[in-house]
Amino acid sequence: MAQAGGTRHTTKFGRYLEEFVVGDVYEHRPGRTVTESDNINFSLMTMNFHPMHCDRAFAEKSEFGQPLVNSGLSLAIVLGMTVADVSGKAIANLGWKEINLTGPVFPGDTLYAESEVLETRASRSRPGQGIVTVRTRAFKQDGSPVMDFVRSALVPKQGHGVGEG
C-alpha cells in the first residue's frame, strides 16, 4: 500500500481524545434522504409494525396525512452520520443521557446533523483512554429540528488506538 504524502491524502476517520475541543461543532455530511422502503423495511425488521409506519391508507387519515418515519430509524441514521467525526475511533459507546424527538420525519425528508463537544476528560480507570460527550442535533432539509441527544463515548488517546503502540 502506498504511503500518504505529496498529493496523496488519507481520509480521517474518528478522533483521538486530544482532538476534541469543548465548544467545537462538527457538521456531519452528506445528509441522508429517508425513503419509504427504508421506513417499511426497518419497521418490519424491528417488529414495529405500527400502521403509521407501514400502512399509507391508515396514515393518510392521521393528523399528519402521510406515514411517519419510524423514530428508531431516524435515530439510527443520525447516529450513523456522527460516527466519522465523533466515534470512529471509539472503544465503546457509553450511552445516551437523553433523546428528544422534536419534529416529525416523513419518507422523502433528508436528514442533516451536527454535534457539539460538551465535555472531554481522561478516564480514571483506563490510562490510554478518555471520555467525550457531545450533543447531536438533527434537522430536515428545510432546517426544522427533528431530534437531539447527548451521548458519551470512550475514545483512545493519541498513540493508544487499535493497532497502535
TrEMBL record:
Secretion signal span: none
Transmembrane segments: none
InterPro entries reported in the protein's UniProt record: HotDog_dom_sf (IPR029069), MaoC-like_dom (IPR002539), MCH/BMMD (IPR052342)
Domain MaoC-like, residue spans: 22-134
Protein name as annotated: Mesaconyl-CoA hydratase
